[in-house]
Amino acid sequence: xxxxxxxxxxxxxxxxxxxxxxxxxxxxxxxxxxxxxxxxxxxxxxxxxxxxxxxxxxxxxxxxxxxxxxxxxxxxxxxxxxxxxxxxxxxxxxxxxxxxxxxxxxxxxxxxxxxxxxxxxxxxxxxxxxxxxxxxxxxxxxxxxxxxxxxxxxxxxxxxxxxxxxxxxxxxxxxxxxxxxxxxxxxxxxxxxxxxxxxxxxxxxxxxxxxxxxxxxxxxxxxxxxxxxxxxxxxxxxxxxxxxxxxxxxxxxxxxxxxxxxxxxxxxxxxxxxxxxxxxxxxxxxxxxxxxxxxxxxxxxxxxxxxxxxxxxxxxxxxxxxxxxxxxxxxxxxxxxxxxxxxxxxxxxxxxxxxxxxxxxxxxxxxxxxxxxxxxxxxxxxxxxxxxxxxxxxxxxxxxxxxxxxxxxxxxxxxxxxxxxxxxxxxxxxxxxxxxxxxxxxxxxxxxxxxxxxxxxxxxxxxxxxxxxxxxxxxxxxxxxxxxxxxxxxxxxxxxxxxxxxxxxxxxxxxxxxxxxxxxxxxxxxxxxxxxxxxxxxxxxxxxxxxxxxxxxxxxxxxxxxxxxxxxxxxxxxxxxxxxxxxxxxxxxxxxxxxxxxxxxxxxxxxxxxxxxxxxxxxxxxxxxxxxxxxxxxxxxxxxxxxxxxxxxxxxxxxxxxxxxxxxxxxxxxxxxxxxxxxxxxxxxxxxxxxxxxxxxxxxxxxxxxxxxxxxxxxxxxxxxxxxxxxxxxxxxxxxxxxxxxxxxxxxxxxxxxxxxxxxxxxxxxxxxxxxxxxxxxxxxxxxxxxxxxxxxxxxxxxxxxxxxxxxxxxxxxxxxxxxxxxxxxxxxxxxxxxxxxxxxxxxxxxxxxxxxxxxxxxxxxxxxxxxxxxxxxxxxxxxxxxxxxxxxxxxxxxxxxxxxxxxxxxxxxxxxxxxxxxxxxxxxxxxxxxxxxxxxxxxxxxxxxxxx
Length: 949
Fold this sequence. Notes:
The protein is α+β, with helices and mostly antiparallel strands. Helix content is 21%, strand content 36%. α3 runs antiparallel to α14.
């Protein structure tokens, strides 16, 4: 959004130069280091960058831009809720929390009287309001309620400006931050959904109706690919992500239509790819950028997808961490670094080490009977899910409820592995003779043991009919006490009271509805004005050991309204709000030290001890007790030095041991330790190598998998050791092995001392088989019966082997090698035998043997005399004898097939013999050559001559 700063700023350089500037940090970033970061480490670096960067920009330019502060306030608030270090001092010399408070206050100060925000003059009201209310929603939910009124005023403005289609239109185009009306609408929906928690039932119903219209608008445009800036399309990845956020804010919808749409969009993101990497681009098959990828990761988190079960998401998270710059920022996808950094941090913090979500299973409201003579109860079911990367133990407690009503939770503690979820029940107990139109709201809070300050909560209500009306006469609720900006000290009571009027007339109790008092967004109590004096009142004492919220906080009285019998008109609910300044307890509370019990044990009996000593001058300890798993207190009298001790019995599984001490000044300190009784040995599986595997390396990597509820140490062959801190996972250990049979021991020992051992048997041989045959390569072989050549293959090795000839059937030899007798049918000419040997460890040897199969006799060429010629006298016969393989071993000459004489081989290779033709009668005769080769092939070849003496 355009703005002219008071002095030049690099953030307002031309776009091309800005892109060049953005490239410089990418060159000097250290992606190799980023790859080793956990999600938590990466997110902490990001919020350290964001809080300082945006505060610097705000102070430098004296400006709250449309997107910059609102988005970052939402992101920093979410990080605080997930246990990140907000007390870290960052580059501008302030803490993250101080920076967050400055930004939130600046947003609040810039709000107009009608509840909206503008940039300059009358510019960009929808866009700036959408980001401002988005930021305040996160702040109100996760940091402080001191700006709840601002949030409600913004929601009221939004009611008057929503279009009939359900949208709030975009009025500023700056790709990708301000682009399209679905994004603007989703941000306003987020603010309105949070404001709904701060108003009376009638106003809340009005907000929900607006949210339903907006959700319908978003669903109607799920497949709209309009890319224009003011349009209603959602082709871009960041628009899909904003839509998920908006639908989530609207709730599941009738017949879960919004949930179904969220799942559709989640699948769209999962199947959308970017060439060459694991991130997301703005459009399908576009190059990935940090803003689009961070947006997609956050949307998939809201949609309930898990990295453990979704490789697309898991790989994108790891890719995202490699993109982080050295200063903690992400830098692509937007002209300014804060937007990609904000959404990268949102996505990663959503999958941080510690995160918990609480949701109601089934109905959030249950009806009780009016004027029933017996006590009643309503039981609600919740799901608590560990959304973090680490196992955690949660303390479960309730807040709220009408006077005389109680709530019990079971179990009081819950241990969950990473990604695990458990069921919790809350039972609301109501007294007899209930009046009509009562509503008792109770909040279940799951508090992380691993990261103090990380909580999840969900609210339910038991009521008597009729329900608060949504039509009727308006009422006005006025806070009577305490006065605005009054100070309340933790541990000291204060009277919360309010008056309700209708047209100036007081609406007294006890049958005209309920006033519920909220402090810091928590329902701390309620009243029905049982004495009918027109004052609804509740004496609130913020407990020393459980109330931790201090500073300026929202205080409001919410009247439920009441349905009345005709002809009387219904009375609508109404809300009054003010501010309370909550001061910490003024004295030092007792020091409580619990003896050092083991975190994990196999034993169910434990001797527990601790010390309770006063810290406030003049105070004495008046009460000390152990509480085991939420049971009845074991009250003990401190001895010397404040020592208390007792023997306790533990349950199998997670246990919570609490020690509480109270002093004479009212100071209370409660501390707890978590202890798990684990009598089940780890589940150990050797994944590789396989049992009885044969390997060919002197070092074998043994990969083992472990499942357990406590940290497990895995040892392989006594030397290698790894600790699985969360009890589940895989380890890889290299083990040196010798030749032959080997046994490898893998031992898994959990933190309670339970042991599982597995033996892995291996055969080790890195040697190559030696292969030979009983015949030499190129052996010449004469005629054989049916051409069958019998031969032997010799293999020398310590391993079992498989032998094949020319890829034919397998011949198996046991360990130690041996000889294979086999045969082959030869074809005349050269026969090639390709012998391959592979050992059981995968080592191979190959040998080629050629057999020359000769079944052809030698042939002769008569050189002199020439065949058919006439001869006389003494005759020297010369012939050339050849063989297809050779050699020719014997050549004989005869005449007329008789009188054979041995031929003589000459230096030129020819064969000769002499005949006296005078011993022959004149006429025709034959000269015969008798020939043998070296493998037994024989032939006689005759040539005609004529003798004339």
